[in-house]
Structure formats: structure tokens, C-alpha cells
Amino acid sequence: MKKSQIITAAALLIMTACGTNNATQKKIDITGEWNIVEVNGNAVPETPEAPTINFNEETHTFFGSTGVNELSGSYILKNDTLVFLEGAITEMAADSISMAFESDYLHTIGHVRTVSSGNGSLSLKDDNGSTIILLKK
Hints:
Strand content: 35-45%
Distance between the termini: 39 Å
Order of helices and strands: HEEEEEEHEEE
Number of strands: 9
Largest sheet: 9 strands, antiparallel
Structural class: alpha+beta
């Protein structure tokens, strides 16, 4: 089994385990461009480009900027369960603060398990339900 198939199978298992009744679960709309506001409770530092993420619900893909590099990939969203799958990123360099933020963001995005929305923001949460990435329109 290829690595991508294993990741996809694991993501589907997570989603099945976390799934709730579709009749009672409101669909969360993550479509469009979002500004990254906080990662692990820390405000986004000033970077060469504003860190963003853009979700395309039709293709289940995302793209955006870490503030330095461009990233893209795919995701699965079922009810409030959100799993990021394989992705790609460019390899540009910048100042140490921007690169440290990028490293933290890329590490943190792999720990996202659920999403909630309200007041024009999205909260990407970890296994414990703690907001680890905050996004705003």
C-alpha cells in the first residue's frame, strides 16, 4: 500500500470514529480565503506576505501562504472533522522570525482534527478540542 493510501485510509478511520449524526450536525462552510490570525495562541508575526489559507470545497483542495512560502494540498471535511492530507510547499527563505512561524504553522496543521465556526472565524482544533489555529475572513 502506498504512503498516500495509508494516510487517506487513516484519515477516513479518524473521520468515521469522530463522525456524528448528519441529521443533527450543521455543515461548516470553510470555503474561501482565510487569514491566519493565531497559531498555538501566538499572534502571527509580520511576514513578507500575509499568511492565508484558501479552501476549495468542490475539489477538496487548499492553497495559501505561510507568509514566506506557498503551500497546497488536499483535505477531507466531514461534519466538524477536518483532516489535512498530503501537500506541497515551495522552498524560499526569509528572516528567522518568519521562518520560525512557518515551521510552527506547518507542524501544527498536522495536528488539526476538528473545526468550528462563528463570528467570521474558523477555529482549527486538536485532539483535545483546543484551538491551535485561528482563521478569520
